[in-house]
From TrEMBL, chains A, B:
This is Repressor. GO terms for molecular function: DNA-binding transcription factor activity; transcription cis-regulatory region binding. It comes from the Bacteria. The keyword Transcription regulation applies. It comes from Saccharospirillum salsuginis. Residues 2-56 form the HTH lacI-type domain. Pfam families: LacI, Peripla_BP_3. PROSITE patterns: HTH_LACI_2.
DNA sequence: TGTTTAACTGTAACCGGTTACAGTTAACTG
DNA sequence: CAGTTAACTGTAACCGGTTACAGTTAAACA
């Protein structure tokens, strides 16, 4: 592979001039530029990215940490982010946090060693303080996705989860339901707490008393949805609708209800959260809260690129959730059988 | 950030010695090693990966091209590959081919410029000859995933699609079906052709004549499944079962059948291909052919790492498909209504 | 005792770019 | 016409590692 010195010799100019041509510096005469380009072509010259990075101290790489490379949630986010970053001529390195704190730290350190130009992080488990310290210490721009840390608000791309919880619950209230169960995600995660807060606000606004026995904390997994339903049953809770903390748990709930002979949505309405691809295919198609993960990806990438350029006038990026009505919810008036009791 | 020279000064040794310690070279006395390690610790030294790459001409990076970062198919593959590669202390750079030939070429060139140590490619559109030429020209190891090119067999991690097509069809034959439609993927793709070949072999083996009018070429998309069904209908084809070229088309077919009032599996059995996550959740849960994409990822990564180390004694990695029986197929004896006719 | 050899360490030349700085024109200004 | 400036080009130092080679020491061997 040809080097810049070979090209410079071939074209009869200095290496500096070749470098200028390669980097589009304007102080090169048209004649020289053409001669150099010709030589480059002829020798099949490709700049060595290692040398370039060493000299400029920029890797032209943006690092990304996601919880899971295979989950339905992150796919669209990565897709759009990669698109944006590649269009800018840079590379995206993705690593997975695998949903353990240790792995999350690892993944971040891994990317830092790699001297990425910026980092886009989706961290589930790392506590706020640790992230704040991380941002303070590292010299490179760091973007947080799907998480709002007040101290770093202008580095966060997030969704208003409180509003999402409100929206889901409000939808059921509007349908006439008043006994509404809520299966939350792990409450050490802020998104789960926020959704719960939205659930409570919706009830309050509608004048429906908050009933602790209708709320179960779970784990965002399908199996967790089924388990949570089991706990509600043991509590002898009565309800005609369920707000799932995410789509997977909602699907778990529906499957478990079905096994118990309860028909959805006729006897019990269920709302999900995330609008994962599968939700549209599931039967009954899931009514859910859409989280614009793809926009997260695109905006996080754009923000990262901007910060790489040295910009600092960043505005907080906060998205509003939307309700997607499908077939898993029904007005209480249309409930066919008597109210559901799992006792 | 401390450099190797600062560390060497601090420890009172030469840069060569520090480098030896960092790289685990054995010709260093224990005392010196400890002194150097202490200095490294004290100064918070981290080797500069650019400089290292420049000097060694290795990037410690493996590049991967997939059709789509967000699809259900590639997720598990990336997940496992990343795991394996990170455990080896290297990085994975993933780029997406976005299902156009132009983008596929782009993605590959992008990674080559980056001077990855090896490439793992899932190419849908690039013709065999171009890939062969690519492998001949580039000095680095290239692994092909989900594709078998005879000339490069020892570089391919693939599935026996012919066997898969056979398996799916055989399953339906075993259930007593004889009028079995097949909706193929685009026949310029070898996997679609192979599955079709398997379909034919199964019929032949069972003594059922091959009927061209039962085969429709489509596009691997859900909408394509519905369209294909439409074409069968217009042909006035009669059948009691369908072999889908992949899960998405199978789901498209089932949804379309349902809209026409045909019940699945009672009136028509449908088999998918891929065993995408969604298939288990779909109602009826899809009977399908499992493609071990996660193993593709892991094995491709391992193979890539091995080739990086200079190994050359590679054996071809060919997986056998498995049938996953779920609820979308039923014995013909149990067909409730009369045979299905869409006329 | 002289010679070989193993164990360890250092010097300096690379790897292939970028870029500060200096130098050379030629046009332009006062 | 001297002085300034814009346009262009080259030299060489630098980025921060790796590693060939040479040098030193001390133990092992003949």
């Amino acid at each position: 592979m040809a080097t810049i010195r070979e090209v410079s010799k071939h074209a009869g100019v200095s290496v500096a001039t070749v470098s200028r041509v390669v980097n589009g510096n304007k102080w090169v005469s048209e004649a020289t530029r053409l001669r150099v380009l010709e030589s480059m072509e002829e020798l099949g010259y490709e700049p060595n990215s290692f040398a370039r990075s060493l000299a400029t101290n920029r890797s032209n790489t943006i690092g990304m940490v996601v919880g899971d490379l295979s989950g339905p949630f992150f796919g669209p986010m990565m897709q759009r982010a990669e698109q944006v970053i590649r269009d800018a001529g840079k590379h995206l390195i993705i690593t997975s946090g695998h949903s353990t704190l240790e792995e999350e730290r690892d993944a971040v350190q891994f990317l830092l060693k790699r001297r990425c130009d910026a980092l886009i992080l989706h961290l589930d488990l790392m506590p706020d303080e640790e992230i704040i310290e991380l941002c303070d210490k590292s010299p490179l721009p760091i973007i947080l996705v799907n998480r709002l840390i007040p101290e770093l608000a202008d580095r966060c791309v997030s969704l208003d989860n409180e509003a999402g919880g409100y929206l889901a619950t409000r939808h059921l209230l509007d349908l006439g339901h008043t006994r509404i169960a809520h299966i939350t995600g792990p409450l050490y995660k802020s998104d789960a707490r926020d959704r719960l807060a939205g659930y409570r606000r919706a009830l309050e606004t509608a004048g429906v008393p908050y009933d602790e026995s209708l709320v179960v904390e779970s784990d965002y997994l399908e199996s967790g949805g089924a388990q949570a339903l089991d706990r509600l049953k043991r509590r002898e809770a009565e309800f005609t609708a369920v707000v799932g903390g995410n789509d997977l748990m909602a699907i778990g709930v529906i499957n478990a209800l079905r096994q118990q002979g309860v028909r959805v949505p006729e006897q019990c309405s269920v709302v999900g959260y995330d609008d994962v691809v599968m939700s549209a295919y599931f039967v009954p198609a899931l009514t859910t809260v859409r989280v614009p993960v793809d926009d997260f990806g695109a905006d996080a990438a754009r923000l990262a690129l901007k910060l790489c350029e040295g910009a600092s006038d960043t505005a907080q990026l906060r998205f509003q959730p939307e309700l997607v009505e499908r077939q898993s919810t029904l007005a209480k008036g249309e409930v066919m059988a008597e109210n559901l009791s799992l006792v």
